[in-house]
Amino acid sequence: MGRLGKTARIFTENEIKEATENYDGSKKVGEGRYGIVYRGILEVGVTKDWHAIKMSKVKVQIDQKEITSPVDDQKQNTARTGDLKQITQQRFIKEMIALSQISHKNIVRFVGCCLDTAKPILVYEFMRKGNFYEHIYEKEGKEPLALARRLKIAADTAEALAFLHHDTGKQIIHCDVKTANILLDENWTAKLSGFGASRLGPEDENQISTLVHETVGYEDHEDLDSKSNTLTEKRDVYSFGVVLAELLTGLQPETNLAKVFVGLVEGGTLDKSLDEKIVEGHFNIVREAADLAKICLKPKEEERPSMKDVAKELNELVREMEQHPSGGGEADIPPSPKDTGNLGGSSASSASVGDTITSAE
Q1: Which of 2, 78, 218, 253 yields a CA-CA distance of 20 to 30 A from 339?
Q2: CA atoms of 283 and 121, how far apart (whole Å)
Q3: 281-286, long-range: CB within 8 Å, 24+ apart, which pairs?
Q4: Is 121 in contact with 11 (CB distance < 8 Å)?
Q5: Helix H or strand E segment including 114
Q6: Could you give the angle at the alpha carbon of 314 between the alpha carbons of 189 and 168, nearest 5°?
């Protein structure tokens, strides 16, 4: 199967229909802009288990040659604005290519695909605890996560991004880092998903397209306004900085969170926007994590750290919390004002439950 690799499975339409009970509504677990995600039991190898089955929302033709060509020959074509069919086709192809050629404990595992349907289907491992976004904002009864767990999830995600940026041979820039694309397994291990907008290998002159980071609140505005076609891994670093700001404050990203957060840190008022149940007396660690987020959000790319450095610092914070789970006598946090929702707004994030693999995108 060439680029799909030896471990990817090609499923028949009948297998997919049987697993989803003919796409029954009770099997639907998410819906995004480009796809609908179902859960179903599929046989892979000698075992049967739950899998996430993502179906395209539109009918597109994917030629097998498009997903078996070498990365160096894969053109990063610019999708025409408003051409949903072309955009969807490119996203599905990019996701298959990216996930079929990499393996990492913190990247969602691509299991296979079904291409003999009018709407192409991708199959992934099923992430039983949903996505990070749901737990930060306590969506659909998800339990709120303590600071230690949030930082461990962030460290896992940073490890995945560092791997993509530095250890894959052909650098991969994710281009859609957000809490809804961070999935959680039954052991709370974080796995990065949502590779439909990623950049594979050397970029060409058409690398900046309508596919690049369409989620409001996570984009680097200075980079978006730039006339340059240069795209670097520091775009992902900026988006990850927004993720860190989210997990510390619980504020929604589309409220210009990056600017608000940096202002809180620089003004020394971050403590007034923190929830006591998240901080748990670990304000020194919160300050270190906040300073790290602020550096990731630097306007100039060259001033941002690498994801390897970010992962290293986060892992150190996680170890510190493991050694001092009670807070180690750190200063008490003043009561939260309970009105931080004014910054976050009441509207749901554009990163909805449908963006999970749960990641329908």
Answers
A1: 218
A2: 45
A3: 281/326, 281/327, 281/330, 281/332, 281/333, 282/147, 282/321, 282/324, 282/327, 282/328, 282/330, 283/330, 283/331, 283/333, 284/330, 284/331, 285/147, 285/151, 285/317, 285/320, 285/321, 285/330, 286/147, 286/248
A4: yes
A5: strand 110-114
A6: 70
Cβ proximity of 86 and 61 under 8 Å: no
pLDDT per position as a tens digit, 118-135:
888 999 999 999 999 999
Judged on CB neighbours under 10 Å (0-12, 13-18, 19+), 81 is: exposed
Alpha-carbon gap, residue 134 to 142, rounded angstroms? 6
Please identify every residue annotated as catalytic: 176
Q: How far apart are CA 194 and CA 136, in angstroms?
A: 19
Q: What's the pLDDT tens digit per position in 1-10?
A: 334 555 678 8
- Kindly report the three-state secondary structure assignment for every residue of 68-79: CCCHHHCCCCCC
The domains found in the chain, sorted by start residue, are 2-125 (3.30.200.20), 132-355 (1.10.510.10)
Which one, of 149, 162, 237, 229, lies nearest residue 190 by Cα? Answer: 149
CA 119, 121, 123 angle in degrees (round to 5)?
170
Phi-psi region of 82 (alpha: psi -120 to 50; beta: other; left: phi over 0): left
